[in-house]
Design goal:
Elements: H1 5-37, H2 41-77, H3 81-116, H4 121-136, H5 139-153, H6 158-180, H7 190-214, H8 231-263, H9 267-283, H10 285-303, H11 307-334, H12 336-341, H13 347-362, H14 364-379, H15 384-408, H16 412-417, H17 419-436, H18 438-445
Helix pairs in contact: 1-6, 1-9, 1-10, 1-11, 2-3, 2-4, 2-5, 2-8, 2-9, 2-10, 3-4, 3-5, 3-8, 4-7, 5-7, 6-7, 8-15, 9-13, 10-11, 10-14, 11-13, 11-14, 14-17, 15-17
Length: 450
């Protein structure tokens, strides 16, 4: 039975702001990379390596954000706006609670963390400075992260887009001025990029908090009630979010380890890895966007006890991601040299990056299936299966890279080609797990609709 047009429209309405928001974030990262790249390969490698640790921090915080988004979706589906508002307050409370000790540790050990990856002294010094600044301001990182997740789970993906747009409008000129000493600002080099990001995140933080205060999609943080830490709600949030957080940590740890492996291939390979990382972020935008739409709509369908509608929405979202990610793969292959040259004029770095874009392009359709249907399973409360699939794929690829790169004297393109061995299995297993349909009975039976 074909899905109604209104369901196609709901998927699109949820997905496009997420895709646009992440596109803005990715493009800003690309522009920052281009600006930092003008400072030399050491600066490019240092900032790129520091951001691997930043991704690790965000992964830890996803225990709160993903769990909160799922519960918010279920509550909105059940029209329980009071619970959705409690979830919003608790997500902010617990997110900040987790961020503070992580920030302290990050500031103290930032340079030592860089050395752990075996980078050169110059790269460690630059990356350590960038990481310290980011960690000092971790609170303005975590609040937009958690608040935005709650709004998306409740079905509002436009407000996070507005917040990100405004953040980027602040970030770009501040980063430019502080990196190069322009616009009347001091020249801070790579550290200027970090301060620009902090300024943008502060703006995003204010916008999202104001939106929640005003009660967007009937979710509000007004009032004194609900701000004290609630153990029962926290356990539900963490119970849902912890597997997703472990998944994100496993992915970040895997890519951090990959950075260490690539560092031993030389600074050119490490700089090329940063370029490929930007392309990776761009390629995954449709997967993230349609995946979040699937999470929200499946979650709301569970809350409303209409899981068949959520299933149809998930398949519609998968089709959308397949179309867009396949198209991006074709573009990456056709324009791989111009894309790499946009970041650096170093011919050695360009060649390595261009060759590495080929396996990244080929794997796109498989990731489309995996990302969206994993998001659908999370919306139903099944966050463990996507964890197993991610660990299998990421760590299988990384361990294979460690095993073969040194002995066989292979390079970065061969490391990325490892995904072509694992992605077909994980994409198929994720599709099979969702199609089996037992997630409907499990979610309703566990009381996730209430």
């Amino acid at each position: 039975m074909p899905a109604p047009k209104s369901l196609h429209w709901r998927v699109f309405q949820l997905a496009w702001p997420v895709i646009t928001e992440n596109l803005l974030q990715t493009m800003l990262g690309i522009v920052d990379t281009i600006m930092v790249g003008r400072l030399g390969a050491d600066a490019l490698a240092g900032v790129g390596t520091a951001q691997q640790y930043l991704f690790f921090l965000i992964s830890i915080l996803s225990a709160v954000s993903i769990g909160s988004a799922i519960l918010a979706a279920h509550a909105i589906g059940a029209r329980d706006h009071a619970t959705a508002s409690r979830v919003a307050k608790q997500s902010i409370v617990w997110g900040v609670t987790l961020a503070i000790p992580l920030a302290v540790l990050g500031v103290i050990f930032s340079t030592a963390l860089m050395h752990l990856l075996g980078v050169t002294e110059a790269v460690a010094r630059i990356g350590g400075g960038y990481l310290s600044i980011t960690m000092i301001a971790s609170v303005v990182l975590v609040i937009p992260f958690t608040a935005g997740a709650v709004l998306r789970g409740a079905g509002d993906t436009r407000t996070p887009l507005i917040a990100t747009t405004c953040a980027n409008l602040v970030n770009l000129p501040v980063a430019f001025g502080l990196i190069f000493g322009a616009l009347g600002m001091p020249a801070l080099g790579a550290n200027g990029s970090a301060w620009g990001a902090v300024a943008g995140r502060l703006v995003s933080c204010v916008i999202l908090l104001v939106a929640l205060w005003r009660g967007r999609v009937d979710v509000t943080i007004r009032g004194r009630h609900g701000w004290l830490p609630e153990g029962n709600l926290a356990r539900r949030v963490v119970g849902l979010g912890a597997p997703a957080a472990v998944e994100q940590i496993a992915i970040s740890a895997g890519f951090t380890l990959l950075t260490g492996v690539v560092a031993h291939l030389g600074t050119d390979a490490l700089a090329a890895q940063r370029i490929v990382g930007n392309a990776l972020g761009l390629s995954l935008l449709p997967g993230f966007g349609f995946g979040i739409a699937a999470t929200a709509l499946v979650g709301q369908s569970i809350g409303a006890t209409t899981p068949d509608e959520g299933e149809r929405a998930a398949y519609i979202a998968t089709q959308g991601a397949l179309i867009w990610m396949t198209a991006l793969g074709v573009i990456f292959v056709a324009l791989r040299f111009p894309l790499a040259t946009a970041f650096t004029s170093d011919t050695g770095v360009v060649q390595i990056a261009a060759d590495s874009l080929i396996p990244l392009a080929i794997v796109q359709p498989l990731w489309a299936i995996e990302f969206v249907l994993a998001g659908a399973l999370r919306g139903a409360g099944n966050t463990r299966f996507p964890l197993f699939m991610s660990v299998l794929e990421i760590w299988g690829t990384i361990l294979l890279g460690i095993a073969i790169v040194g002995p066989l004297h292979l390079g970065l393109p061969q490391v990325w080609a490892g995904f072509l061995l694992f992605a077909p299995f994980t994409a198929y297993l994720t599709w099979w797990r969702f199609r089996r349909g037992d997630w409907k009975r499990a979610a309703l039976g566990l009381g996730l609709a209430g």
